[in-house]
Amino acid sequence: MKSDLRAEVAASRQALKDEYLRRPDPRTLLARHTRLVDQTIKALWSETGLAGEAALVATGGYGRGELFPASDIDLLVLLSKEPSEGEREALERLIGRFWDIGLEIGHSVRTVEGCVEAAAGDITIRTTLLEARFLVGSRALFQKLQDSLGFDPVAFFKAKKLEQEQRHAKHQDSPYSLEPNLKEAPGGLRDLQVIQWIARASGMGRKWSELVPHKLIERGEARQLSQLERHLHDLRIRLHYLAGRREDRIVFDLQSALAAQLGFRDTPARRASEEMMQRYYQTAKVVTQLNTILLQNLEARLAPRPDTAPRALNERFEVRSELLHVKQEGTFERQPSAILECFLLMMQHQELRGMTARTLRALWRAKKLVDGKFRHNPVNRLLFLHLLQQPRGIVHEFRRMNQYGVLGRYLPEFGRIVGQMQHDLFHVYTVDQHILMVLRNLRRFTMPELAHEFPLCTELMNGFERRWLLYVAALYHDIAKGRGGDHSELGAEDARAFCRRHQLSSEDSELVEFLVERHLAMSHVAQKQDVYDPEVVQEFAGLVKTERRLVALYLFTVADVRGTSPKVWNAWKGKLLEDLFRAARRVLTGEPLARDAALAEKQGEAARLLRLYALSDSAKEKLWASLDITYFLRHDAQEIAWHTRNLHYRVLPEKPVVKARLAPFGEGLQVMIYTRDREALFARICGYFERAGFSIAEAKIHTTRNGYALDTFVIMGQGRDAHYQERIAMIESELPAEAQSETPLGPPRGGRLSRRVRHFPISPRVDIRPDERGAYQVLSITAADRPGLLYGVARILARYRVNLQTARINTLGDRAEDVFLVSGEALSNPKTVLQLEQELLQDLTLQQAAA
Question: What pTM did the predictor assign?
Answer without folding.
Answer: 0.71
